[in-house]
Amino acid sequence: MNLSESLANMSIQNDNTEQIQKKREDYIGWTDYFMAVAFLAAKRSKDPHFQVGACIVNQDMRIVGVGYNGMPRGCSDDIYPWEKGKKKLYVCHAEMNAILNKNSSDVWGCTIYVKLFPCNECAKIIIQSGIKEVVYVSDKKAKKVEYKASRQMLKDAGVICTQYKPKVGTIVIDFDEDNDSSPLETEKRSE
Ligand SMILES: Nc1ccn([C@H]2C[C@H](O)[C@@H](COP(=O)(O)O)O2)c(=O)n1
């Protein structure tokens, strides 16, 4: 008797009326999942113009780092400037934060999922850290010199860059989905 026959048999013995349940089919795929983590991280950004998120995944499909664009630790995001032209002196990019936030010894051979194609500074860090693949959604800054440079460096360093079109347009997170009756009571937390 093979595994599925013996599992079916066990189910019949436990309850004669029980139907064998098939797995659900509308779960999200790996790439949508990792990209969604990057997009969710971006929601933490305080940048009023551009929110970017990044998620680094190792060869075992484990998330080893997540980051978003923000001011460095200790540099108040209420005081440091968010204006175009000024913020670039201070803001840490999502990719850099994801690499620095890693919970593994290194990110060698990993894939980074990002909302936006990396700039030249992030490309250097991606290459030097051993990341082997960049999966991105938006390429809206492609014409800028920094992004032309990053594309060239990533290409020459053999880092595969793939623009990704998510399989689904939106992913809805409903915090109430397992609550049968009363809506979730919100608890005030400091953020
Ligand atoms: N690959 C990127 C590109 C940009 N960011 C961040 C940095 C800024 O907060 C914002 C864009 O700024 P701008 O280029 O308009 O001066 O997005 C990032 O995290 N990763």
From TrEMBL:
Q: Where is the CMP/dCMP-type deaminase domain?
A: 29-161
Record carries keyword Cell inner membrane? no
Q: Which keywords does UniProt give here?
A: Hydrolase, Metal-binding, Nucleotide biosynthesis, Zinc
> Which CDD domains does this UniProt record tie to the protein?
deoxycytidylate_deaminase (cd01286)
Record-linked PROSITE patterns: CYT_DCMP_DEAMINASES_1, CYT_DCMP_DEAMINASES_2
Q: Which cofactor does it need?
A: Zn(2+)
Gene3D superfamilies (UniProt xref): Cytidine Deaminase, domain 2
The EC number(s) attached to this protein equal 3.5.4.12
Alphabetical list of InterPro entries matching this protein: APOBEC/CMP_deaminase_Zn-bd, CMP_dCMP_dom, Cytidine_deaminase-like, dCMP_deaminase-rel, Deoxycytidylate_deaminase_dom
Q: Can the keyword Magnesium be found in this entry's annotation?
A: no
Tell me any Pfam family this protein matches: dCMP_cyt_deam_1
Q: Which family does it belong to?
A: Belongs to the cytidine and deoxycytidylate deaminase family.
Query: Which PANTHER family does the record cross-reference, listed alphabetically?
Result: DEOXYCYTIDYLATE DEAMINASE (PTHR11086:SF18), DEOXYCYTIDYLATE DEAMINASE-RELATED (PTHR11086)
Q: What name goes with this protein?
A: dCMP deaminase
